[in-house]
Amino acid sequence: MTIKGKAYIAGIYEHPTRHAPDKSTAQLHAEVAKGAIEDAGLSKDDVDGYFCAGDAPGGAWPMVDYLGLNTKKLRHVDSTETGGCSYIIHLGHAAEAIAAGKCSIALITLAGKPRTGAMPPRAAGAEADFESAYGATTHNAYGMCAMRHMHDYGTTSEQLAWIKVAASHHAQYNPHAMLKDVVTVEDVLNSPMISDPLHRMDCCVVSDGGGALIVTTPEIARSLKKPLVKLIGHGEAMKGPRGGKDLDLTYSAGIWSGPRAFEEASITPKDIKYASIYDSFTITVLMQLEDLGFCKKGEGGKFVADGNLISGVGKLPFNTDGGGLCSNHPVNRGGMTKIIEAVRQLRGEAHPKVQVKNCDLAIAHGTGGLLGVRHAASTAILERV
Amino acid sequence: MVDAKKYPAPVTNPETAAFWDAAKQGKFMIKRCTACGEAHYFPRSICPFCYSDKTVWEEASGEGTIYTWSLMRKSPTGPYAIGYVTLKEGPSVQTNIVDCDLEKLKIGQKVKVVFKPTDGAPLPFFTPA
User: Fold this and answer.
1) Which H helix or E strand runs over A277?
2) Positions in chain B short of pLDDT 70
3) Which of A66, A192, B6, B116 makes the best surface tag, with the fewest CB within 10 Å?
4) Reported pTM
5) ipTM entry
6) How does pLDDT run across A57-76, given as a tens digit for each residue?
7) Nearest CA in chain A to B124
8) B70 in contact with A at a CB cutoff of 8 Å?
9) A376 has which bridge partners?
10) Chain B residues close to A131, C-beta within 8 Å
11) Are the C-beta atoms of residues A241 and B67 closer than 8 Å to each other?
């Protein structure tokens, strides 16, 4: 059993807002749901599967009710919560459900307001008494990974900075990007140190907003008007300190989710024309590129340097919307926008200045949780038909 | 150096109460599995490696080396260094490195456990040895 080619992404929508003091979180979910349903050329009453994560107020059943979905028709729900990569996992789960005949038109939504509203608290894990007092945040948890990666492999701050530089080159063409200025390696190195060795410009933006997807069967996708984009491989994985044995923070769970997705798709990283890689921090991108097999472990620094991730310049165009580093990081969860930009590239709808020529194979990969502590990862490989 | 930072009291539960009782005596405990011989942290009743329930408490030396660290430059309670310390007994533990010049920390540096008070049981931290 495989999901290869069993599900198509027929609708995408990224909310243009980055600052939404005048909207509710549920409202943002509704606006992105409407956007994706209309992009697909469907109506809300067609939806028979709904997917959401921890950002959806109250979870699946309050959202299904609020969104006014057709409950006589809705027959599959999934509220898998794995932080920022939840939506990439949802995409795989939607394909599984579609392949199994459990639904035919799945809606996935993400939205929230970290800039202008309170973020819902996370439930405590079994480790809470042994860790919560030490103040792990995103910044220092990813900082710990970068520190060890530098120690083990000689990775430098200059190399990490190239990731931000590449993102900024793309963001200048995105009218909705929060940060549109092109920056240099020096700009990144001169920005204030936030949590060693990560500077402010190694960190992504904080933005209100959201995004949504419509995933459907090949038959329904072919009946609609959008260019056809199908899911051909998917992987998911988790990693944690596991009792503290043989701790190694220089790799992520992408080392397992990536090969699973590539194997299902029957392609290799060399075949990929465009990569959406979750960029919560520059180090996140570097480690994931290594883990996914775009270069050898420890050689990520060399791989990302000198503009290799800039569209039209380097070998692996990445995050051509400007990514989380420059454009958008709705609800501190980057997985959704990674899928959306990959679909834009495959449809040929990216900005002409960053559109990859003959873009027929793309990857969308993300992590959720804290890379240096416990996290999930998910990989989706998409093909233009 | 004034350490005015207030740390939350552990909630504790039946599985981990012995750890916190020992901490009150200044002892830093780990769990070891008598079936596979592996030590682990934080403590669980079932061994995370071989799933045996034959895990026993063991007082650790409290000595270790810094596996990695990161200095958070700003926070409501001031700068602090988070890190992982690899204990002499094997497991790596998440902690803060305290009571030292935080800008001079190094991977591989030797550290030892130090307890800090809370309103409940004290919490383990590490400081250069």
Assistant:
1) strand A274-277
2) 1-4
3) A192
4) 0.97
5) 0.96
6) 999 999 999 999 999 999 99
7) A130
8) yes
9) A238, A368
10) 42, 94
11) no
